[in-house]
Amino acid sequence: MTHPPLDYSAAGVDYNKIDPLKLLAQRSASATGANLAAHGVAEVAGSRGESAYVMEIDGRFIASITECLGTKALVADAVRAISGRTHYDTIAQDTIAMAVNDLITVGATPLSVHAYWAAGGSDWFADEERMHDLVEGWRKACDVCKVSWGGGETPALAGVVEAGRIDLAASSVGIVPSRERLTLGEKMGNGDAIVLLASSGIHANGVSLARKLVERLPDGYASLLPDGRTYGESLLDPTTLYVPVTEALFAAGIVPHYIANITGHGWRKLMRHAGEFTYRIHTLPDVPPVLRFMQEHAGIDDHEAYGSLNMGAGFALYVAKEQAEEVARIARGLGVAAWVAGRVEAGAKSVVIEPLGVTYAADELHVRA
Amino acid sequence: MTHPPLDYSAAGVDYNKIDPLKLLAQRSASATGANLAAHGVAEVAGSRGESAYVMEIDGRFIASITECLGTKALVADAVRAISGRTHYDTIAQDTIAMAVNDLITVGATPLSVHAYWAAGGSDWFADEERMHDLVEGWRKACDVCKVSWGGGETPALAGVVEAGRIDLAASSVGIVPSRERLTLGEKMGNGDAIVLLASSGIHANGVSLARKLVERLPDGYASLLPDGRTYGESLLDPTTLYVPVTEALFAAGIVPHYIANITGHGWRKLMRHAGEFTYRIHTLPDVPPVLRFMQEHAGIDDHEAYGSLNMGAGFALYVAKEQAEEVARIARGLGVAAWVAGRVEAGAKSVVIEPLGVTYAADELHVRA
User: Fold this and answer.
1) Do the Cβ atoms of B14 and A175 come within 8 Å?
2) Are B220 and B281 in contact (CB under 8 A)?
3) Chain B residues within 8 A of A116 when measuring between CB atoms
4) Which of B37, B47, B42 is nearest to B57 (CA)?
5) Residue A59: enclosing H or E segment and its boundaries?
6) Distance of CA A302 to the CA centre of its chain
7) CA-CA 20 to 30 A from B39: which of A288, A296, B152, B228?
């Protein structure tokens, strides 16, 4: 390996530039919560800084969110030339997953999704095959999550969005039927189990790195992985929709103490909870071939790989120890591999991945004001 | 005038290319409404095709929407060089207005707003002046509408969004406290009055045309209007937020029979209601200087101008005839000029602007499947 390791800064994403805006925006946003009193509505203060916003309306809780796909559609555009497929059916699922997988972390049942498809020009919508794939994939993902596709926006934004490209996002509204169903972390405690749910691949996190890596590969997206599939098509495996799992848990009377969607910052997200806990991992999920391939060819160590990619764990459920095996069994019954992978301990905020000898300290994750 | 008239097709927006996708998406979306039954929730079928989506949850109604600003930020970027101001405070208000002014058309009280700020790169967020303006404008608009800024997404999307640009959108969730408060048009009838509320200028509709026009103006955005202001700064007058007006109407016990937000398609939107009515306008609002200037310099006639721009009317309330003057008085009391401008008549679907001799037939507006 003669290349220097690739990291996020090299891949064009600089969190140092984004974070000051995020903090300023979070503080200003927080100040507006008082506006709800005029309507007899209250915000659930504990949802500020979590992955979805929750308001209490007459004893019920409405959760909402807007999430972006990111740059994964650029991969689909490039791979289409190799595969002959548009891949926008799976891109649609990715986009919806970004929204609903975050929404369910507060304990919500997603009800509706809005589409945001902003193209670089009207021409984008004239490609019938791609258009049908996008619509059909969107509809199917809604059906899997049992949500209603409530509407959307399909602007043509020449001069804002690059010609031939599309900026995809989704917003979602859900309901939490009672205060007891909120999973904002109040019940998290020493001895809780960490159940990790399998990812299907890269999901939509680490895509800038994945694209940057192509420049180093002689065969680019057509590079073959050990399992015989191409790098490009493997990257485009659609993000797992975790809604059926959380719905099945609620139906079984199991309410997790906390939930984390493992996206940006990879396994550092395991310490997303605001409290002071050590997250000790003793069992590693299988690593999808595409992520192992990325780690090897980018030349990054485990600390960097697990700190930025999902490395096989797409979703984390923090549950009472005695419910852990049942939680994993329910997920597996729905076709989602699951591992009782670790435990929550009172102690300095950190993530300790024992089998790898990797630790992330509290100051390696900044997600709240 | 040696130039041919500018129209939307010349300005790069081709609705013929967008509409087939919209129809396909609308039909697929409609099919997903049945998913709500699993949650004991029902969609309000009459909201399909309207400007916001409404679900009934235990006798209350939750409305939601996602809306895009469009390309108006490109005007701000260009005018900054002339004015020395970023104008992103007013751009923020425009973006929120796109969402809440649509949300209130179904009778909703907006509760929360999510921000979607997708930049062409991390650098966008490093411009502190612009960043503060955007955040501060967003917060102020939330305060005017008494909504909570619930969160948002600030991705850096190099390769999707143009370098140095930002794709701005907003989603909003609101509540309609009872079925009687829904303004989906069931009560619209012969003899109802049309009350038009003043726009503040171009709002965010017709911006592609406004930008195209700059190429014809020797002084570009610095061109002076008859009122002595520049074309560029006039274009950036922020979109009126109509939330205080609808809230005041509800507080006074007035529920409009129907509401239309006048955006794309200009006054053709006056026949947005699904029924068979003629909308006869007898009184014209004052035309903002910037729109009169655009009409003159683009060389377009009244049929084209009123059919694509708001021409001084940003919002239309269809109310019982005997409530019309009171509705206008309430709006004026909040600083929004208002006119009892026309009436609804049983008859062939069309908009008739009598003072101009302009008529739009039903086939000149396609907004629903």
Assistant:
1) no
2) no
3) 66, 68, 116, 169, 171
4) B42
5) none
6) 20
7) B152
The tens digit of pLDDT for each residue in B144-189 reads 999 999 999 999 999 999 999 999 999 999 999 999 999 999 999 9
Assess whether pLDDT exceeds 50 at residue B97. Answer: yes
Contact B52/A at CB under 8 A: yes
Q: Which residues of B touch A31 (CB under 8 A)?
A: 139
| Residues paired with A279 in a beta bridge | A344, A351
The ipTM (two decimal places) reads: 0.94
Are the C-beta atoms of B269 and B261 separated by less than 8 Å? yes
Average pLDDT over residues A330-346: 98
Q: Which residues of A touch B25 (CB under 8 A)?
A: 115, 135, 138, 152, 154
Q: Which residues of A touch B118 (CB under 8 A)?
A: 68, 167, 169
Q: Which among B21, B150, B158 has CB closest to A64?
A: B150
Structure tokens belonging to residue A218: 């002689």
pLDDT tens sequence across B221-232: 999 999 999 999
- Which residues of chain A are within 8 Å of residue B64 when distances are taken between CB atoms? 64, 112, 114, 150, 171, 173
Q: Is the pLDDT of residue A15 over 60?
A: no
Count CB atoms within 10 A of the CB of residue B317: 29
**Is A362:A278 a contact under the CB 8 Å cutoff?**
no
In this complex, the residue of A38, A58, A156 whose CB is nearest that of residue B13 is A156
A62: nearest CB among B74, B173, B208 = B173
- Mean pLDDT computed over B82-109: 98
Q: Environment class of residue B332 by beta-carbon count within 10 Å: exposed (0-12), middle (13-18) or buried (19+)?
A: middle
Q: How far is CA A66 from the centre of its chain?
A: 12
| B28: contact with A, CB 8 A cutoff | yes
Residues of chain A numbered 184-243 and touching chain B (CB < 8 Å) = 208, 211
Sign, Cα dihedral of A114, A119, A125, A130: negative
In this prediction, residues B26-33 reach a mean pLDDT of 94
Measure the CA–CA gap between B117 and A267, rounded to whole angstroms.
25
- Show the tokens assigned to A248: 């099945």
DSSP, res A105: G
Query: A298-308: b or e for each residue (b if 16 or more CB lie within 10 Å)?
Result: bbbeebbbbbb
Residue type, A262: I
Instruction: Give the whole-angstrom CA distance, residue A362 versus residue A272.
Output: 10
**Facing residue for A159 by CB, picked from B20, B71, B142:** B71
User: Residue B32 carries which side chain, given as an amino acid letter?
Assistant: T
Q: What is the pLDDT of residues B162-172, one digit of tens each?
A: 999 999 999 99
The two structure tokens encoding residue B24:
């396909």
Q: Is A301 helix (H, G, I), strand (E, B) or coil?
A: coil
Give the residue from chain B lying closest to A40, CA to CA: B111
Would the CB atoms of A112 and B12 count as touching at under 8 Å?
A: no
In terms of C-beta density within 10 A (0-12 exposed, 13-18 middle, 19 or more buried), how is residue A363 classed? exposed
Q: What Å distances lie between residue A269 and A27, A285, A313, B45, CA to CA?
A: 21, 16, 11, 40
Measured in degrees and rounded to the nearest 5, phi and psi for residue A338 equal -145, 145
- pLDDT given at position B301: 97
